[in-house]
Amino acid sequence: MKTVTPKQLSTMKRLKKDIRQKKERRYENKRGRLEKEEHGKPRAPGNAFFLFWMSLDQGELRRKEFLKEAARKWSSLGEEDQRPFFERADKLREQYFGELKEWEAQMAKAGNFHLIRPQHRVVYKLFQVQQDNQQED
């Protein structure tokens, strides 16, 4: 029977710690995602290919085969045939960002800054501070 060297032991401990931290991060990400869904965060729309893919009939094909077939069809389409999907994707994206902005404003009013996109938190916090200062005056 072999014994474990101190170096091997420290490596094993580090790996265990890394695995535990990875699981914790995964749990935190899932918890954050679920919390956003609970508060009614709008879902991001698909891109042009996704819209094209959803317009096709899968039939008897397995998902992997169906995706390959859809990708082949998409690449064989010309720009003119792809344009409606790109236009629809752009409209959906604009609509999504409008809804997202409204949702983030609601979350800021409710004090749920942790649910807002990080790059927008500062703006909403500053806005809230300004409103608080105006109410005090």
Automatic annotation (TrEMBL):
Basic residues composition bias: residue spans: 13-24
Domain HMG box: 42-104
Record feature DNA-binding region, as residue ranges: 42-104
Bias kind Basic and acidic residues: ranges: 25-41
An annotated GO cellular component: nucleus
UniProt-annotated stretches for the region Disordered: 1-42
GO MF term set: DNA binding
Protein origin, superkingdom: Eukaryota
Residues passing through the membrane, by range: none
InterPro entries xrefs: HMG_box_dom
Record's compositionally biased regions (Polar residues): 1-11
Keywords: DNA-binding, Nucleus
Pfam families: HMG_box_2 (PF09011)
Protein name: Putative HMG-box domain-containing protein 2
Species this protein is from: Homarus americanus
